[in-house]
Structure formats: structure tokens, C-alpha cells
Amino acid sequence: MAMTKQEKLDAKAEKAYEKKHRRKYKLTTGDIIFNILNYGFFGIFTISCIFPFYYIFINTISSRSAVTRGEVLFYPIGVTLKNYLDILKVDDVFRAFGVSITRTIVGTALMVLATGFIGYLVTKEEMWHRKLWYRFLIITMYFNAGIIPWYMNMNMLGLTDHFIAYIIPGIVAPYNIILVKTYIESIPGELEESAFMDGAGYLTVFWKIVWPLSRPILATIAIFGAVGHWNSFTDSLILMQNTPKLYTLQHLLYNYLNQATNIGAAMNSGDSAAAAAAAEMLNNKVIKYTVAMTSIIPILLVYPFMQRYFEKGIMLGAVKG
Question: Which of 127, 134, 219, 314 fits a disulfide with 309 by CB distance 3.0 to 4.6 angstroms?
């Protein structure tokens, strides 16, 4: 309904009165000191978090000789993209990158789908032995058999040297199920009840009502899953020993780190043959920095687009226990 002329004048006069008589908060000396210390601390903390990434980046775009001599500290020297172009010539980088990308996309998608549905099921009182299954899931967060029994189990299941070994163990994530369950419990039950009254089943209610309304928490666990899959290399190191074509990018990076360490030790020992071989290779320090930066960039590009969902989902998903 449109406001009359008199109402507009009254509203304008009220705003002017409030502006004129608004009490301004005056900062005390203690407030000023606190703000300086607060902003100073968080400023230093932010710089300490960002600087390692910045340091790696400026080393990747600097000349190899400057990096080798340790001259690159705060700004790049001899700016060049040759280091990134040379990485393209390193064996299996593209294949390892493809394995990591595929693993991250497929593993995260299946984890989100399974976690969302399981989280929905454990909110239903009519689920058979619901509390038993839920507690069984929670127990696995605190107890595990260790790496050797885990490897033996994976080997007996025939999952070693096979891509699905990256996917299956991470499909069910107990902590994420807790977040999803808590979030779904905050959705008004009347929405589901009305759907059931119209003849909808559990799957229909899940896909049409619960799934769309749970996007913030699903995006949150998607970030958890994607970062976990992308950064993982232990399973590749242990399970893919006989299948180099299934090495992840992180595993390949680990191999290059070891290679660089071994060559450095040989050069320090005075082995001229090793020194000559090292001179013919790409600078190992630059390789480490460039491959590390290459492995970091995808996550850094994805996170800003998911941040708003992440903040909302993690807060709402943690309201209840």
C-alpha cells in the first residue's frame, strides 16, 4: 500500500530526529589499545598463513639460478613462466593430474550422495534399529585397526592396484553424516508430513524436499571431501605400488621430493657423476615448488565459490549434538 504524503513527511522527520539525537559511541583508551593489538595480531597471523603460498609462487616464476642461490625471498627475480612450461615435459604429470581430478570429482560426488541419504535415514524414528546403526557409525570415528590391517583388508578385497580403492573407503564419512543429520533435523517436519499426506515416499521426499533444502551443508561436506581426496597420497603410496599409471599428483610430488633429496645428498658427498646427472635434469628445487603450486591452485580456485555455503552449512550443521 502506497504511503500518503503526510506519512512520508512524518517518516522523514522521524529519521531526521533519530539522526540528530543518535548517541555516538566514544572509544576509550582501552578500546583503542585493544583494537590496535587485535588488528595487529590478526594481521600478522594472516600474513603468516599467506606468505608460504606467496613464497612458493614467487619461486616458481623466478629464474632457476636465483632460486638455486636462495635469492628469492620477498619478490620474484628474473620473472619467467619457463618453470611451468618445463613441468609439462615431466613424465606422467598430466596423467597424475587427471587421476587426482577424476578421483576428487567421483569420490566427492558419491560421498555427498551417500552421506546425504544416510544422514536423512538416521533422522527417521521408524528406521530399523536406527540408534544402533547410528552409534555403530560414530564408533568408527574413534577406533580403527591401523594401516597394516587396513592394507591387508584392501588386499583381500582385491582393491590394490585398482582405481576404485580411492573411491570406496571414503564414501561413508561418519563426521559428515553427523553434520547432515543435525542439519536435516532443523528442517521443519511439516514439509515432509505434507508430502507424505500427498502420497510421496521417502525417496521422493528426499529428492524433492530434503536434498534442495540441504544444499548449504552438502556444499560444506563437499569441500571436506574434495580437499581430502585432492591432498591424499597415503593410499596411493601404499595401494598402487605396482601401478604407476594410477599415481595421484600428490604421490608424484612425494616421489619428486624424495628424488630431490637423494640427488642433493649425492652432490654433497662429492659424487661428480651424480652432480653431472643433476645438472642435466630440471632444477629439482624449482620442480618441487612448481608441482606444489600446481597441486594447490585447483583447491584455491574452488574454495571462494563455496565459501558462502561453507560458512552457513558448518554453523547450522553444528547447532545440535
Answer: 219
Say yes or no to pLDDT of 280 above 70. no
pLDDT for res 16:
66
- Average pLDDT of the segment spanning 18-28: 62
Nearest Cα to Cα of residue 113 among 208, 207, 231:
207
65 and 176 in a common domain: no
Burial of 266 from C-beta contacts in 10 A (0-12 / 13-18 / 19+):
middle
Q: Crossing angle for the helix pair 215-231 and 93-121, nearest 10 degrees?
A: 140
In a domain, 11, yes or no: no
Dist. CA 135–CA 121, nearest whole Å: 14
- 147: its cell numbers: 594401516
Mean pLDDT value of segment 212-227 = 85
Same domain, 43 and 186: no
Q: Tally the C-alpha atoms within 13 A of residue 213's C-alpha that lie toward its C-beta.
A: 17
Q: Looking at beta carbons, which pairs linking 203-207 to residues 24 or more positions away fall under 8 Å? A: 206/116, 206/117, 206/120
Cβ-defined contacts of 77-85 (< 8 Å, 24+)? 83/286, 83/289, 83/290, 84/60, 84/290, 84/294
- Binned at pLDDT 50, 70 and 90, residue 317 comes out as very low
Range of the domain at 67: 33-80
Residue 137: is its pLDDT beyond 80?
A: yes
Query: In Å, what is the CA distance from 24 to each residue of 19, 20, 168?
Result: 10, 10, 60
303's CB contacts (< 8 A; 6+ apart) are 223, 310
What is the residue whose three cell numbers read 608424484?
252
Q: Is residue 24 part of a domain?
A: no
